[in-house]
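Build the 3D complex.
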Amino acid sequence: MTFFILKRLGLAILVSLAVSAIAFFLLRISGDIAIAIAGEGARDIDIAAARQLHGLDRPLIVQYWVWLLQIFNGDFGQSIFFKSDVLSLVWAKLPVTLLLGVLSLAFALVISIPLGILAAVFANSWIDRLALSVAVVGQALPNFFFALVLIVLFSITLRWLPVSGSATWAHYIMPVIALGYYVAPAFMRLVRAGMIDVLSADYIRTARAKGLPAHIVIFKHALRNAVMPVVALTAVQLGYLLGGSVVIETIFALDGLGFLAYQSITHKDFPVIQAVVMLLSVLYVLLTLLGDIANAWLNPRLRIS
Amino acid sequence: MADTLLEVEGLSVDIKTGNGTLHTVRNISFSVKRGETLCLVGESGCGKSMTSLAIMDLLPKGAKRSARQLVFAGEDLTSKKADQFNVLRGNRMAMIFQEPMTALNPAYTIGDQLMEGYRRHKSAGIAEARDRAVFLLNKVGIAAADERFGQYPHQLSGGLRQRVMIAMALMCGPELLIADEPTTALDVTIQAQILRLLAELREELGIAIILITHDLGVVARIADQVAVMYAGEIVEQGRATDIFSDPRHPYTRGLIDCIPLPGKTTPGRKLGVIPGVVPSLIGEITGCTFRDRCAHAEAQCREPPPPRQVPHHSWRCILEDA
Ligand SMILES: Nc1ncnc2c1ncn2[C@@H]1O[C@H](COP(=O)(O)OP(=O)(O)O)[C@@H](O)[C@H]1O
Ligand code: SF4
Ligand SMILES: [Mg+2]
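Done.
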């Protein structure tokens, strides 16, 4: 188990490095940073000066190396648009996004696990088909469209919830639903498929042969085994949620990392974009790592060997 | 009869499939007395597992049971609802399966799986259940039972897992144990050990056993009663001694001729097999189910063969003696 964790940890570090390189080079390819730094309507000399000042005239690989070293020292540079330290800027927005991500995930799990179980236990019945249609609608609707529908219904028509901002818990309700509903179908399908698979396993028949009541057979013997792939997917989906939060936070003006990413992209604020991309990616890698470890821990075959 | 434990009369199991309804068990009748071992034999696919699952009410989805009579220890099983059946199952009737490798839940320890049925049926505490589990692990011949108790299934070999399954089935002291080909998946030396264990347990605990097997060598060693199944029907049944010394049905005779015997079977020679295949179980079969493979078949065999019997022994064939 320790070896397993160390192996995965090493892999996670390698992936993070690769992601940092991709984030760095892609942004450099997408436009000339010197122009962005020099600002709107700058003259050629200003641009050249900015290029020299920020070391942008040096070879890319050297720039990457310098940037990487700075990151390891906790220095993500200065925001061009906000004119403040990138790290503290990003750090301040992180809790909002994490809260949104975790709540959305919880919402997704709370609706998808029971639906998945029901669909599996009553496979091919009308219950199954109903659950399936909920999932299909969830996957077919783009999340921004669903968000707009929610706004029209709850904010404009019913006037129950605030449209935008992040001041109170009420501001989180619609973003959480919009984002959570978006990832719920993947969970539901996985739970359903896993449960159908497990329910036909020999050990389920053994459990029934012992005279255990249905709820123990389903929740103790089946769900425990069906839930393992779900745990692995949870980490991955949390990554998707972090990505989806860019759209949702922007729509609801929820003041988190996603909204920050949107703002810095529109203002060509390269240091901030790089930092947000880096942070989201590393978070994603960490979550995948956690998912792997949790999965290994749930599975005695991996835990004890 | 007072000492009859299980009475099965007119049991059928139908499975709906895309191609029509499979009649996997066709109107069979037999009974098991307390403390007695009934062996259910026949080639694979003839409905042995469906019969046992029907008794345990464990049939797969899509399989439907019907019976004129299904009585266990004086209780009518046909009218029992799921939760009423749960009171009997694992408690007074228990079952072990063919595949020990997959029959245990990989996510829980041996001990957990041994105790859960006992704790439920006997309202026992952990300490008591644990003692009983360790006692039975010892009884079924598992060394270091205390240690095994805390292990997971993947840490045990197939033979050990089948022993655990047997211990698990015995936890509540059942009156009936159904063993569906418990040794088929194991290698030969382990097979012999497991069968010896079953025979010992029967002697010691006075438990009635329905042993399903397609190995007549096993039957000869352990059975009191034998029922021979073919294509969903019982074609011959009776006392084991009579079946072996005086088989009447051509199919039974064929099966017995296939047993390798020390001294009689030439080493290296191919064992006898009954030529032909089992007929499709879809739809009704009129006349004798065995007639496509029977050396004695006549035009008459297109009609349902008449039931015949001598004391303790019955069969269905146009012939008095094959
Ligand atoms: N779940 C199932 N669905 C459809 N047919 C099945 C199923 N299980 C068994 N059968 C069929 O039922 C027949 C009897 O099977 P079974 O009782 O398992 O035979 P045996 O135990 O004697 O080998 C076989 O023809 C088999 O193909
Ligand atoms: S009834 Fe006819 S076909 Fe069937 S076993 Fe007897 S002789 Fe053979
Ligand atoms: Mg079978």
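The pocket of magnesium ion (ligand 3) is lined by residues B 48-49, 180-181 (CB under 6 Å).
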